[in-house]
Structures are given as structure tokens and as C-alpha cells.
Amino acid sequence: MKTQVGIIGGGPSGLMLSQLLHLKGIDNIVLEKHSREYVLGRIRAGVLEHGFAELMREAQCGDRMDAEGEIHEGFYIAEGGEKRRVDLAKHTGGNSVVVYGQTELTRDLYEARDKMNGTVIHNVEDVKLHGLKSDAPHITYRSGDDIIRIDCDYVIGADGFHGVSRKSIPSDVLKEYEKVYPFGWLGVLSRTKPVSPELIYAKSDRGFALCSLRSQVLSRYYIQVPLTDNVEDWSDDAFWEELKARLPDDVASELETGPSIEKSIAPLRSFVAEPMRYGNLFLAGDAAHIVPPTGARGLNSAASDIYYLYHALLDHYENGDDTGLDNYSEKALARIWKAQRFSWWMTTLLHNFPDSIAYDQKLQQTDMEYLFSSKAAMTSLAENYVGLPF
């Protein structure tokens, strides 16, 4: 097989780039390790920044998002029994975020690829990348007993943290930065009415909690737990009891509980790989960077990678201009590190760290008080939350 762009990874990043390129007549093939059902079964974040929503519309995949997604112009931070609102629209000149589940977003992208007869190949095994420093890279994968070869101009690695793409960069070239946090998030998805029309980030002596939602009948809640905890340690009743204990009384009294549809524990880490280009391989999304979910930057950071790649490939094929490809890694990483800083800051502000000393706790409290006393600090939070410009 031969194509112009070979994309490794059939999650939202790979599908988004595939759709955008196809709309401009740039041939591409997407390879995905898992089945479509598996990909659509993953529960992920659902807060889309302003720029991401615009990118979905440009990809002609935004109709259902616009019809069913919820525009949020703010969120709450709760502490000490009090909740205070962060007015995103006020501090960003009217910008907002869209609450729309990643599962639904991925479903929209799959349907768009189907309508255009896009090539998305599932259940591929033993993917290997070859000739990345040459002008003629190729990809091989196994299908049953057959080894399939795909010749392409460029390879896009959007295959996540554990994928083959980043591992194909020599260790003497790749530099990795990582911070592992001493806790995880226990998340529960329930078919219940959300306790609040806007997200509530709660800081308490018992640990962090988040009240989120997927729709008006589907809620997503999280609590901070030690890394030693297992999902089996937490019954539904125990989860709801602990969540209520971390929320202001007026919020806890309104909380509607019910059986969990999905329950999981996600460890928190910050990770960046540099560079994001090696020869004709370009990394995107979780293959190159991961953030803790506190600031809702994960999927949104991947969207900025796709934005830069899409325009760089467009300039190459339509205008013969390789400036965007040559500058991709530097440009993408500049925005990624800003997202890393913001996610680290939000995580540090709102969580209890088991090894913190009294000095750390005083600084954390001072940071919170400064946030709500300073227009500049609030503007900084709001600008980062709705998404910095691409």
C-alpha cells in the first residue's frame, strides 16, 4: 500500500488529523491497535477548550457537539465549606469551554471518516516504523500471518504513551521529562443528574474532589486517593460517602447518587518527550506528552499538535513550503510546556500532598487567597483554562 501520510493511532488525535487532511485531498491511512468498540469504550475527559471546538467544526464534525454539548462560561472552586465561581467569559473577553464527552467526540470522528470512506484499519499488530530519517519511510504491521507494508511521505505517531512511535526514536536523541504524583483519581460515571450545572473543583482536608458531567443525565465524579488503593477497595456507597464529605454541605445535600456505570483509578503524571520530530516521524498527543487531568489540558493539548501538523502538511502539499514541518517540534513544545505548567499549578493548588510540611500548606493557602483577590491571577487562570491561542 502507498499513501501520503501514515497515522499510527485511531483515537481522537489520529482521527481528527485524518479527517482534516482528507477534506483537503491529502491521502492518509490510520492504523489502530484495538477494535473500534474498544476505542469507543474508553472513558475520558469531556471539557473542550475554545480552539478545540473550532477545530471540530473545521473538520465538519461539530454538529452534534454544538447540539448536545454544553457551553460553560465558568466553574467553581470550593474550599472550607464555601464555593466561589471562576468567571471564564468575564476574564477572557467572552470565551468559554464546551462540555462534551470524548467518547462521543470520537464517535463523531469515526462516523465522519466512514462517510468519506476514509481508511482506518483496526486490530493491527506488531507495528514497526522504518526509514524514518530517509525520504521514503514506511510502516509494517501484521494482519494474521501476513506482514503488510505501507509506503508514505510522513509518519504521524498519535498512538499514546505506550505506543511504538516514541519508542522508535533513538534513546540518544530522545529526552524525557517526567513527574509522578503521589496520588490518583478514583472516578465514577453514574446515570444521575449532575449536582451542579458547572464543574466544581473541591479542596478539603480529606483531599481533592471534582464534580463534573457528561450531560444533564450523566455525571462524572472524582476523588483523590492514594496510589496504593484499588478499585475493589471502593464500593459505590463508600465512594458517595467520601465524595459528600469533601464537598460543601449545601452541595453534598443536593448530590444525587446511584449505581456506577464505570469506576476506575487513574494515576497522575506529567510527562514531555523532546523532540516531537525525528526525521519524517512527528509525535502528537499522549505519544509525546501527558498532563494530570486537573486543568483539563490532556485532549486539548493534543488538539494543538494536530492543528500545527495539519497546517504544516497543508503548506507542504499545497505550497511546497516546509517551514511548518521544520518548526513543528519547537512550536508544539512551546504550547505544551505552558499546558504542563498550568496543569501542575492546578494540581498543586487543589490537592493534598502526603509529604507536605506546614510551610507548603501555608503557601498553598496563600496561593488560593491571592487567586481570588487578584484580577491578574484570575485572568491567567481563565485564559489557560479556555485555551491559549494556537
Strand content: 25-35%
Mean pLDDT across every amino acid position: 95
Query: Which strand order do you get reading across the main beta sheet?
Result: 6-5-14-15-16-13-17-20
Percentage of helical residues? 25-40%
Q: DSSP helix count?
A: 13
Strand count, sense and barrel status of the largest sheet are: 8 strands, mixed
* Number of DSSP strand runs: 20
- Rg over C-alpha atoms, rounded to the nearest angstrom: 21 Å
The low-pLDDT segments are: none
Give the N-terminus to C-terminus distance in angstroms. Answer: 34 Å
**Per the principal axes of the C-alpha atoms, what is the gross shape?**
globular
Which class of secondary structure composition applies to the elements? alpha+beta
Explain what you see:
By secondary structure, the protein is α+β, with helices and mostly antiparallel strands. The protein contains 13 helices and 20 strands. It has helices at 12-23, 36-40, 50-58, 63-68, 88-92, 102-115, 164-167, 236-245, 249-252, 298-319, 323-350, 358-371, 375-386, and strands at residues 5-8, 28-31, 47-48, 70-72, 74-79, 82-87, 97-99, 119-121, 125-130, 138-143, 146-151, 154-157, 175-190, 200-203, 209-215, 218-225, 260-274, 277-278, 281-283, 289-290. Helix 10 (298-319) packs antiparallel against helix 11. The longest helix has 28 residues, at 323-350. The protein is globular.
